[in-house]
Write a structure and sequence with these properties.
- With about 210 residues, this protein is of the alpha+beta class.
- The chain contains four helices and 15 strands.
- Helices cover about 25% and strands about 35% of the residues.
- It has a six-stranded mixed sheet with strand order 4-7-10-11-12-13.
- Helix 2 runs antiparallel to helix 4.
- The longest helix has 16 residues.
- The chain is globular, with a radius of gyration of 17 Å.
């Protein structure tokens, strides 16, 4: 999602209080705290939302939304990088008992996350850099990025400090099978995903 740092007033408010006030001020926006910085994302565009709907299908068809696991959009993950840090991935595969691991502010312990996925928007560097560090430090086993700017799919595995040991980039025409550690065999069609996520030209545009 497109993100921008929020201008933080000179006050002693905890960042979470500031983040919650921003959510009230900008309904429908996504507010995260990453690296001690508040990031505000506008509502998703149609292509972004359509891509997420399509991306859910292979996970659902693999049986990952049931007794053992859930496939969820926009669920908060508590991050270890700061005492108030949290992110809200576009899509997550989580343990079914995640509700038992709520930490604060409707955010959950990263131990319950098997996979997180982001679909990039205008501020793609947040997903390609900032969140790589954040999710790696949180030890999320698999991080998938639908990179709409560069028309490719990233699959990051084997989390280490400040990132991931394995980072594979896939182009249209490839079929990508995700690690079965997420709980099932899931194969993604890169061309299909990127086509779904692409912006359609406006009527009359050249």
């Amino acid at each position: 999602m497109s993100t921008a740092p929020a201008e933080q007033p000179h006050s002693e408010w905890p960042l979470i209080d500031l983040a919650n006030r921003l959510m009230e001020q900008y309904p429908g926006h996504r507010v995260e705290i990453i690296g001690g910085q508040v990031l505000v994302s506008p509502p998703a565009d149609r292509a972004h939302a359509r891509a997420l709907t399509g991306l859910m299908l292979p996970f659902l068809n693999a049986g990952l939304h049931g007794e053992d696991a859930d496939v969820l959009q926009a669920i908060g993950i508590w991050l270890p990088d700061g005492h108030e840090d949290y992110a809200i991935p576009d899509l997550s595969v989580v343990d079914a008992d995640l509700e038992d691991h709520c930490i604060e502010n409707n955010c959950y312990d990263p131990v319950g996350f098997r996979l997180v996925l982001e679909v990039t928007s205008s501020n793609y560097q947040t997903d390609l850099r900032t969140k790589v560090t954040a999710y790696g430090n949180a030890k999320v086993p698999v991080y998938v990025i639908v990179d709409r700017r560069h028309n490719r799919l990233h699959v990051l595995t084997d989390p280490v400090a400040d990132g991931y040991e394995t980072h594979r980039v896939h182009a249209p025409g490839e079929l990508v099978t995700l690690p079965e550690s997420i709980g099932a065999k899931v194969t993604l069609d890169v061309a299909e995903i990127l086509a779904s996520a692409a912006h359609k030209p406006e009527a009359g545009a050249e």
